[in-house]
Specification:
- By secondary structure, the chain is of the alpha+beta class.
- It has one domain (about 5-140): Threonyl-tRNA Synthetase, Chain A, domain 2 (2-Layer Sandwich), CATH 3.30.980.20.
- Helices cover about 35% and strands about 15% of the residues.
- It has four helices and five strands; from the N terminus they run αβαβαβββα.
- It has helices spanning about 25-35, 50-55, 85-90, 130-140, and strands at about 40-45, 75, 95-100, 105-110, 115-120.
- Strands 1-2-4-3-5 form a five-stranded mixed β-sheet, covered by helices on one side.
- Strand 3 and strand 4 form a beta hairpin.
- Helix 1 crosses helix 3 (about 85-90).
- The longest helix is centred in the C-terminal third of the chain and has 15 residues, at about 130-140.
- The termini are far apart.
């Protein structure tokens, strides 16, 4: 990897767990980062099931079969002003699964899940941010 350190993907409860990330996912994300041309701050990479339960207890939405559990996902901090540029870089790198959160995006390469797809989280339902992302996604699907 050129732009990231494995430790950036560690589950907060398990130092060194970034080493469990899928190498194909990391290569694609590193490629996206190169195309984006700016730093990408990982807010969540590999996730232990214990940490997933803790997030649920804190009120966060956590999929029971999250791609984070198999090292094939990352959440990346992303301001509204950077949203389309970051999504474009991730699309160009081959990502086709996107979750749009209030201050971040989720990308994953979990081959067991449907693609292409985009979803919102409770903090983006009906927001201008989600409309912007949904319009972008629909334009990509139309080619």
């Amino acid at each position: 990897m050129i732009y990231f350190k494995l430790s950036e993907f560690d589950s907060p409860d398990l130092p060194g767990s970034g080493a469990k990330m899928c190498q194909v996912f990391l290569a694609a994300l590193d490629s996206a980062r190169g195309m984006y041309g700016k730093p990408m701050r990982i807010t969540n990479g590999f996730r232990t099931k214990e940490y997933g339960k803790l997030l649920q207890q804190r009120g966060y939405e956590v999929a029971t079969k999250s791609a984070h559990y198999v090292g094939a996902a990352a959440d990346i901090a992303c301001a509204d002003t950077e949203l389309i540029e970051m999504l474009n870089a991730c699309w160009a790198a081959g990502f086709r699964r996107f979750g749009i959160m209030g201050g971040a995006i989720h990308v994953d390469s979990d081959a067991t899940k449907p693609r292409p797809t985009m979803w919102d989280y409770s903090n983006t339902k009906g927001t201008a941010r989600m409309k912007l992302a949904r319009d972008w996604f629909n334009s990509k699907l139309k080619g």
